[in-house]
From TrEMBL:
InterPro entries the record matches: DUF2161
UniProt name for this protein: Restriction endonuclease
Highest rank taxon of the organism: Bacteria
UniProt lineage: Bacteria, Bacillati, Bacillota, Bacilli, Bacillales
Amino acid sequence: MAVQYETELYAPLKAFFEQKGYSIKSEVKHCDLVGVHPERPELLIVEIKKTFNLPLLLQGLERQKLSSEVYLAVERNRSKRGAHNQRWNEITLLCRRLGLGLIAVTHYKTKPPFIEILCSPGDQVIVPAAKVIKRRSERLLNEFHERSGDYNVGGSHGTKLVTAYREKALRMALVMRDHQGIAPREVRDASGVGNAASILRSNYYGWFIRVSHGQYALTPSGIDALSQYAEVLEGLSLIATAKSEEGS
């Protein structure tokens, strides 16, 4: 059964790698799927497309600057046998030459999707893989750990992503909701966001406004954001409650 959107491939891929012990999050620093395994040093990165094409291949090569464990995941469409993007033996050989992993996802009408790893990163590499840029890899890992949960869907395009920065801004907005004016230091202490003052000054989302010297309040956009991202705020509240109970 053919899928309509790339995002339909994300859930089965996430479940597949979670069963292998990975913690999975989506759309981290433009990577469709990122995974961390407690026993493996390298980040898992999976780029998702409905069909195998050149942009996907180029994405995979770019991601090799972040990790050596990079997979390309595409749908195996049983109704398009013979199409150039379904020539699995040749595509698998190409990925092996480039040190990329390849995953085929087959959807069915009456049973769960089937995940097949056609090759793994580093399988019979003929040409050397790109060197991982440690600094960029560390930034990716930091973004992963800074996020409290998985609020995006891998493969999304043109949607507002819940990044670690947005989570911090939301935590601050929640603190500021019942105040007509509040000092950055108070926002920092109540929200736990260490760089609250910097976020207030930069006002990237237009959520904050300085109402007097050293005093900030929410704009109408900031108030709307509390409703728009209610699910994220609920998740943050649950995490805060769990941490409080652990400390008591």
